[in-house]
Amino acid sequence: MGIKTFAAIDVGSYELGMKIFEFGKEGTMREIDFIRHRIDLGTQTYATGKLSNDKVNELCRVLRDFQTVMRTYQVEDYKAYGTSAIREVENNLILLDQIQNRTGIRIDVLSNSEQRFLDYKSIAMKGEKFNKFIEKGTAIVDIGGGSLQISLFDRDSLVATQNIRLGILRIKDILHTLQPRKAQLEDVIGQLISRQLDAFRKLYLKDTKIDNIIVVDDYVSTIMRTGSGMVTKPGFMEAKQFGAFLSELHSKTESELAAELGMEEENVEQLLISGMTIMSLIRMMGAELLWAPGVTLCDGIAYEYAEKRNKTVLEHDFNKDILACARNINYKYHGNEQDSAAIEKITMSIYDAMKKIHGLSKRERLLLRLSGILQDCGKYISIANAARCAYDIIMATEIIGLSHKERAMVANIIKASQEDGLDMDRYSSETIFEAQDYLVMAKLTAILKVANGLAITDCQKFRDLTAGLKDYELVLSVPEGTDVFLERGLFDKSTEYFEEVYSIKPVIRVKK
Description:
By secondary structure, the protein is an alpha/beta fold. The protein has 22 helices and 14 strands.
């Protein structure tokens, strides 16, 4: 019998949240409770890199209360994630061990890209409403306590994403230092965001028309969805309407807003900061419509859990977004799109032919595709050191949908494929990898090296290549009349590592 109840716990920058979900038949998932506790972890972490004993004690106390609630609901499994407030704590391993020993709850720390992907997944679970909304140019504006994430969609595909370390708590700290008048707030926040986003605007917004903005936050989204007197259509607002909404907020005192909106007075400042951040982005992008789907990280955690256990079906193709993002990176760094597509196709032919030998999954197949797409992006910086530059570009560029470790694997596969293969001793310094990760990287590196060996001159001649196993050979067949004289002559050097990893020899054959 499968899991019936599940708890998703978000240890956020200024709030602890836990949602209890019930999984039903045919992939249904129902939220049955949502418990929240306000605790400002972010301000201390961002300022000092540490949490005081009082904060740690309060955190543990609330998590023990969560344990009691989970027992009440007979929760059979849970997942707890920490975000930037935990991620940026110095020696957070000690903190996490202490929390687990005191509460029994294990907290895993999300990288920024993993956190934003879970938020994105929870939005995409809105199904047809989400798919319809992104038919036009759309930006997801995900506002957290420590940072702001902007992800751009163009023609249904995720084409770019950027993280700006300017979340609500960081802005709040700056404002408390500057002490601007209320009339100056929007201008100050606008200047802060504009300065941070200047490069992003030049790189991505000049060719992309943004019509819609999807808002993910803990304050404005709530007001937009509750349908208070300021909102006519719950969840949606036109940009002009949002401007009027923000002006009305400014015209009232914090105590008046707290009473009218039914929120704690100490949260009103965060509401205003979030609203002014959104308004600055509306002006910068020229957006016309806002949608607040009302999702939280807890929703994303639950959807991920359900997806891994085949308890729900996701309609949106996230792999398509990941690949589109990689192709956009390759385009930005002037990679040859035709050659990239050919290498991608060659590697996929070899990977699929070797399925019974390498024993890898669809996820590793995706990592190999990404490696083929991105392997030449480093030439934009240096032709002589293209592999190293590609590594640096990939490690410095977020790809929503990939974990930090997966991104590092892609970067290492590309680098190793243009060197002598994966040197286990040299790469062992990257402590994020386990033994199994090295094995996966070695297998994928070997395939990419063979593909590169075929692409010495014109890789387009191999775009119709087929691959198949015959005895102890990997036969790479090309159409009759294909000139492979040079490739055959130099091919053995490219296959040495492949033979070492698989004990199979690749050979080029011309069909007759």
